[in-house]
Write the structure tokens for this entry.
Amino acid sequence: MATPTLILITGYARSGKDTLAEGIMSGISPKTGWALKLNYAAALKQAGNEYLHGLGLDADGVDFFEDSFKARNRAFLVSAGTLARSINKDVFALKFVEKCLSFTASHGTGVVVCSDWRYLNELRVAEDHLLRLGWNIVTVEIRTAGLEPANEEEGLSIGEIIRQHSPALSLMFQPDRAQLIKAEGRNLARQLGL
């Protein structure tokens, strides 16, 4: 039986994380089994949707998974996420691992690609729960030349990852290289035997 794999991608906002994830997903062989793009923020977005729907705000377009709605209401997600992490810093990491394990339980071995790895504890929780079950965890950092952190918190959290973990693969691109980033994602999937 193949080894389930988790690929964690970190980098500043607009560095190409989602583009790299898209390339990886498109490069995964059907023989590998299933492939799922799952982000840590999924649990927060779902909770935000449930909050709004619980208030009867079920209008079209009221969905934190929809980019324009999320962008307009980012402050709510940031505040809700900060509150949740202040109560339990591992809350989103634990929900993420729970989803990974649920998917493998129902679908067998496959690949999870995460393009929003922002905190070191997210890796630690994944290691604590998945490595002992035989998962392979691959960490990737992506950078775009000239791109700085979107805010101080992003600089601190991603800086901590780089200083204390040193991702297995570090990629650097010039701005506006989406096709090259996707191609690198497909190559990475092949290199990993996915």
Q: What stands out?
A: Strands lie at 5-10, 34-37, 110-114, 136-144, 169-173. The first strand starts at residue 5 and ends at 10.
